[in-house]
Design goal:
alpha/beta, Rossmann fold, seven-stranded parallel β-sheet
């Protein structure tokens, strides 16, 4: 099923066309029409199924077709700041041609970031993506007018309950208008999720789907490498593979990294281009067009468009960092080995990213080979979780010579 069949507004459809979104995934095919009808929904969909777009796209479409207000329209609850930021980045990409706004709200930031979150709530960003605890902190004050909330979405609900957010979710729900649409997405469907759904949702539709595994023709490899050597490793890998590759995608998490990789490759005589939110629309379209037409062989991109780049014949995907979420990994490597073709995905892992990659291997039910670094590289970190440092016991002040804890 093609995205055009959902009959989205011109603004949203134009953005999807630019990003190369053509065929909808099974969860999108089932969830989007239900959401468009205004029904509550409970969906069991693991990572890698395209669930974020399944609830974001119909909400964005409704926003483009209704009169804008200065109140928050949609609240999306996510278990972690990483997922909240990830959803916000995807909304930013999807909503490029619309007037819709979004803002992520999570803890751990500075006072300035808290004030920015407060302003987003007061002035009414259309979509708020938040962690439960931080939203509760804002709700303790009277500056957040929740009367305009029409859509309440829980993403990775099972994970939130495992983290002890049940009470927070119920308290947030009571602060919102009762006449709203509720959407609950969860990777698993244990009894506690059913209990939560029964309390929050009204006559919901139910969907259950499993994750799509990486294509059989895809070779997955990884390198254990320190951050300071990553740029050089990208260059050396592409040099070794020669000019036979016509389409290479390199994903990095920041614009700074994208620019550094691009400059290094260009200096080495390999024509590369960049794709990120800092480019205007004309630059993005020209870059995608040149990449499709093979005028550019190597494209270095941030996650803002990683899910939407759908170009046939990509032979190699390089993950400059391990994605925070396993869903991102599945989507990134899914850019290659399409339509029964072969392809390769290479991921760089530093010491801090081992846990994330272990989670990825658990998800895809496969151990990814760790290749030996080329000659001239410092040995990378060992692929195992490091034990947590035990806190040292403090010396107790004492004049008692027989006190074993007294320093000699």
């Amino acid at each position: 099923m093609k995205f055009t069949e959902f009959k989205f507004g011109n603004e949203l459809q134009e953005g999807l066309d630019m990003m190369g979104f053509e065929e909808a995934t099974p969860i999108q095919i089932q969830a989007i029409p239900t959401i468009q009808k205004g029904k509550d929904l409970i969906a069991c969909a693991q990572t890698g199924t395209g669930k974020t777009a399944a609830f974001v796209l119909p909400i964005l479409d409704k926003l483009t077709k209704t009169k804008q207000t200065n109140k928050v329209n949609t609240i999306i609850i996510a278990p972690t700041r990483e997922l909240a930021k990830q959803i916000d980045r995807q909304i930013e990409g999807f909503a490029y041609f619309t007037n819709s706004s979004s803002y992520p709200i999570y803890g751990g930031g500075t006072g300035i970031e808290y004030d920015n979150q407060k302003q987003a709530l007061k002035k009414g960003a259309d979509i708020i993506i938040c962690t439960p605890g931080r939203l509760m902190a804002h709700l303790d004050f009277d500056y957040f007018d929740t009367t305009g909330v029409k859509y309440f979405i829980l993403d990775e609900a099972d994970r939130m309950l495992d983290m002890g957010f049940y009470d927070d979710i119920m308290k947030i729900s009571k602060e919102l208008p009762p006449d709203r649409q509720n959407l609950l997405f969860s990777a698993t469907m244990p009894p506690k999720i059913r209990e939560l759904a029964n309390k929050l949702l009204t006559n919901p539709e139910s969907i259950s789907l499993a994750i799509s595994k990486p294509a059989d023709g895809l070779t997955q490899n990884a390198y254990m490498v320190h951050d300071k050597h990553k740029v050089k490793l990208v260059r050396d890998i592409l040099r070794a593979k020669g000019k036979d590759l016509s389409h290479v995608l390199v994903f990095a998490s920041s614009i700074k990294s994208v620019k550094e990789i691009k400059q290094t490759l260009n200096k080495a005589g390999m024509r590369a281009s960049e794709m990120h939110s800092g480019l205007d629309q004309e630059q993005r379209e020209e870059t995608i067009r040149d990449f499709k037409n093979k005028k550019i062989r190597i494209l270095v991109a941030t996650d803002i468009l990683s899910r939407g780049i759908d170009i046939k014949g990509i032979e190699l995907v390089i993950n400059y960092e391990v994605p925070h979420d396993a869903e991102d990994y599945v989507h990134r490597i899914g850019r290659t080995a399409r339509a029964e073709r072969t392809g390769e995905a290479i991921t760089f892992i530093n010491q801090q990213q081992i846990r994330n990659f272990l989670d990825i291997e658990k998800l895809i039910e496969k151990e990814v080979p760790k290749l030996e670094l080329p000659k001239g590289f410092e040995k990378g970190p060992e692929y195992k979780m490091q034990p947590k440092n035990k806190k040292k016991k403090k010396w107790r002040n004492s004049n008692n010579k027989n006190n074993p804890t007294s320093p000699k």
